[in-house]
Amino acid sequence: MMKKIPTKQSETEKQSNENTTGTLHFDGGSRLNSTSAAYGFVLEIGSTLVEESEHIGHGTNNQAEYAGLVAGLSKAREMGVTKIHAFGDSELIVKQVTGEYAAKHENIRPLYERAKELIPEFDEFTIEHLYRDENCRADKLTKQELD
């Protein structure tokens, strides 16, 4: 189910932005009791496709998932995206971002806060959970960083 999160841009800001829509698929993963973590994301803006991944060192799977979301949202803003539709295979992250669950754990709280700071920078933001096999490119980028 897709969840739309209200954003807070002013009417003036909205009018000054061109309506550029992006689709973001993000993923994160960790190995060996959180000793190695990485994320990957795929950002599609019209015919432009951006794929990025990064090894983030020690971290949990949830930290890596959030790092992927934050990196993808940051790249989208950098590229002028005003409407973003995000997809991730972590149901926990999706439910925390939409406010259905609280993000209480201290190891993810800073990344959660950064994601919540980025979201209002878009005219429109939606996020949806999907299964790993529907998120295979972002998953593959993440695994390449971990291998």
List the helices and strands and how they pair.
Elements (H helix, E strand, L loop, with lengths): L1 E4 L5 H6 L4 E11 L4 E10 L2 E10 L3 H18 L4 E6 L2 H7 L11 H10 L5 E6 L6 H11 L1
Parallel strand pairs: 2-5, 5-6
Antiparallel strand pairs: 1-6, 2-3, 3-4
Helix pairs in contact: 2-4
Number of strands: 6
CATH topology: Nucleotidyltransferase, domain 5
**What is the arithmetic mean of pLDDT?**
89
- Structurally, the number of domains stands at 1
What shape does the CA trace take? globular
Assign the CATH class: Alpha Beta
InterPro entries: RNaseH-like_sf, RNaseH_domain, RNaseH_sf
Region (Disordered): 1-29
Domain RNase H type-1: 18-147
Protein name: Ribonuclease HI family protein
Question: Which features does this protein show?
Answer:
6-stranded mixed sheet, Nucleotidyltransferase, domain 5, 147 residues, alpha/beta
Short précis:
Residues 18-147 form the RNase H type-1 domain. The chain is α/β, with parallel strands linked by helices and 147 residues long.
How would you sum up this structure, described in words?
The chain has 5 helices and 6 strands, in the order E-H-E-E-E-H-E-H-H-E-H. It has one domain (2-8, 20-146): Ribonuclease H-like superfamily/Ribonuclease H (Nucleotidyltransferase, domain 5), CATH 3.30.420. By secondary structure, it is of the alpha/beta class. A 6-stranded mixed β-sheet has the order 1-6-5-2-3-4, with helices on both faces. Strand 2 (21-31) and strand 3 (36-45) form a beta hairpin. The N and C termini lie far apart (32 Å). Helix 2 packs parallel to helix 4.
